[in-house]
Design brief:
The complex is a heterodimer of chains A (129) and B (266). By secondary structure, chain A is α+β, with helices and mostly antiparallel strands. Chain A is built from two helices and six strands. A five-stranded mixed barrel of chain A has the order 1-2-3-5-4. The longest helix of chain A is centred in the N-terminal third of the chain and has 17 residues. Chain B is α+β, with helices and mostly antiparallel strands and 266 residues long. Classes of the chains: A alpha+beta (129), B alpha+beta (266).
């Protein structure tokens, strides 16, 4: 690789390091099952927050189809989340919530968690508006 | 006899109260540390966009033809989302040198006789003996995840070398999720030092006569986290809802009751 190529790669590493912080917490396994080109948004009720290793899971009841479906939303490990201000009480069971997620490619009711917005306006994760 | 006792006592007091018998001070690597950069193992040769698991990302280790083909085969599996990451099964260590390439935090425990690299993810631990011993005799060592490491302090630089590493050809250890691997002939020479008060640099010179045409030089940096930063349990098997089939490389997703959510899990 020539010097220009190496310089270009160093710049790229900086960019990747910056933009990849969020999903680099998924060190444990591949994220190939998620469609990261598509953001799904829905409202639901928190069933449970599994603040566990190797990854945390937010279980949410979603009745957008008229039938209650339990969604599994995968997030980071507790050690990384707690350093970002998330703790075991962040998602209280029974709380109404809006969810954004990268859904599974095969349509199963699961996804990679992006962000959430509660009724009082509080947001968690990435939520731009 | 009394004279000898007086001499011994005098010597002990002098040692305790002066620098005559003191060991050289170890550098201050206290606190928690975080790796800088992406999860691709070699920052200098990486190309493509994303992390090591992203399609199209690759590096250019100085592989010989045979091992370049192995790497390309792994890259193809990675692009298809079926490259099996051994640590996804929650049961085996990351191994060395991948232990230096994890996204969670590090601690470095320095003692006069031994250094421990502690990685929060896993958790993983690596021991480096600095008490002057040599490598274990050939008949007393066998390939392991972190191998056999001995070294010494060259001023404030920790210098050590590692051999008796498990080959990653069959999957027990990898360098990153691009599928970069080494053979069981890998012999790695490492230098660790502070290049700034809060930046630690680790420089690796990787020799591998089976896989590489020349030594592979890889440098990684780590930043010291704010004072008081805590490290936590990881306990990978606690609630692993993503079992991986190491034969197909397929990562499954389980629901809260442990049932497979994937619509096409084959």
């Amino acid at each position: 690789m020539d010097r220009l190529g190496k310089f270009r790669n160093r710049l790229l590493i900086l960019l990747v390091g910056f933009t990849g912080i969020w999903h680099s917490s998924f060190a444990h396994h591949s994220t190939a099952m998620f469609d990261q080109s598509k953001v799904k948004e829905f409202t639901g009720i928190i069933k449970e927050f599994q603040f566990t290793n190797p990854h945390s899971w937010i279980q949410v009841y979603n009745d957008e189809t008229g039938e209650q479906v339990e969604w599994s939303l995968e997030w980071g490990s507790p050690n990384r989340l707690i350093r970002e201000g998330v703790n075991p009480t962040t998602f209280a069971p029974g709380a109404p919530v809006s969810i954004r997620t990268y859904p599974m490619l095969d349509g199963a009711p699961a996804g990679l968690f992006i962000g959430a917005r509660f009724e009082d306006g509080r947001t968690v994760g990435l939520w731009d508006n | 006899m009394l004279k000898a006792k007086i001499l011994l006592t005098t010597f002990t007091v002098l040692c305790a109260t002066s620098s005559l018998c003191a060991q050289p001070a170890l550098p201050d690597w206290s606190g928690a540390w975080q790796r800088l950069g992406s999860t691709a193992f070699d920052p200098l040769t990486v190309e493509g966009q994303g992390q090591s698991g992203s399609p199209g990302v690759r590096q250019y280790p100085p592989y010989n033809e045979e091992w370049e083909r192995k790497y390309e085969a792994n890259l193809a599996l990675r692009d298809a989302g079926t490259y099996p990451d051994p640590i996804s099964i929650c049961g085996t260590p990351t191994g060395f040198p991948r232990i230096l390439n994890m996204p969670d935090l590090y601690e470095f425990a320095l003692t006069e006789h031994e250094v421990w690299i502690i990685q929060e993810n896993g958790p993983n631990l690596m021991r480096i003996y600095t008490d002057g011993r040599d490598h274990a005799l050939p008949e007393m060592r066998w390939p392991t995840y972190t191998g056999d490491s001995v070294g010494y302090w060259e001023g404030d630089t920790l210098v050590f070398d590692t051999l008796a590493l498990l080959s990653s050809e069959d999957g027990p250890t990898i360098l990153d999720r691009t599928g970069a691997i080494l053979s069981d002939a890998a012999h790695i020479f490492t230098r660790m030092r502070l290049i700034e008060t809060n930046i630690l640099e680790i420089a690796l010179t990787i020799h591998d006569e089976k896989a590489l045409t020349e030594p592979w030089l890889v440098t990684r940096q780590y930043k010291r986290m704010p004072e008081g930063t805590r490290l936590y349990d990881y306990a990978c098997a606690e609630n692993n809802r993503n079992p991986v089939d190491l034969n197909t490389g397929r990562t499954l997703t389980l629901d809260a009751d442990g049932e497979i959510l994937d619509r096409d899990p084959q």
